[in-house]
Amino acid sequence: MGITSQNLPQMVVKDKPEIRTVWLCSSSSSSSKVVLVVVVVKVEVVVVVVVVVVVVVVVVVVVVVVVVVLVVVLMRMYETVNI
Question: Measured between alpha carbons, how far is 58 from 48 in angstroms, rounded to an integer?
Answer without folding.
Answer: 15
